[in-house]
Specification:
Blueprint (H helix, E strand, L loop, with lengths): L7 E5 L4 H12 L3 E6 L2 H13 L4 E5 L5 H15 L4 E4 L15 H29 L2 E6 L12 H21 L4 E8 L5 H7 L13 H12 L10 E4 L9
Helix pairs in contact: 1-7, 3-4, 4-5
Length: 246
Amino acid sequence: MKRLKNRIALVTGASRGIGKAIALALGREGAHVAVIARTLEAIEAVADQLRQMGQEALAVVADLGVERDIQYLVEETLRRFGRIDILVNNAAIIHPPIDLVNFDSDLWRKVIDVNLTGPALLIKAVLPGMIKNRFGKIINISSIGGRRGGKGRSAYRVTKAGLINLTESVAAEVKPYGIDVNCICPGGVDTEGYREAFGSKGREENPKLMRPEEIAELVVFLASDASSAITGTAIDAFGGTNPLFG
């Protein structure tokens, strides 16, 4: 039995990396998925992969830093599927290392808008339907960087720390309506974004990096009925980059 049969999921930042792995994992478990990204060709390719699994898929082009785009993507998903059961806030800007004294103020605002304000507004937009249906699974993708600061990482890590707090706050507000809100804090993951931001060759260069599919499996668990006892929690999934290992 597929764990998410006929559930309706919405995944942001789904054209590559962790988001793509999450969308495909949800589809394999029976969910119909709306996939969101800024590039039409890339996101349509992911939607096609979902359709080849036998699942319904909707590709929507939107920028999480633009409030009207957030409303649009929710409206399009509801128009197509009628409801949203699972929301995965994955889209994020990963900036290269920049000390705050040199940080461009426009880039700072863009990182905050996409990584933190966008997820908050998207949660706000899907909650009325989830409250009405008395069911929902909201999963925010934070980061190991949300657990502590780091040189050159101020904007990114501020947003990821804020996402943990947002998770806890919203979870407390919506639990009476049967809605669970959780957060995952991945360690280093071999994604296109990671390679671009840090000039890395990925696992070829650093075998400690995780595969995106490892995070996707955790998302599937949190989206399933098996996670009914878990809400308001930030789960550390550091893999080989766990600071405990030195």
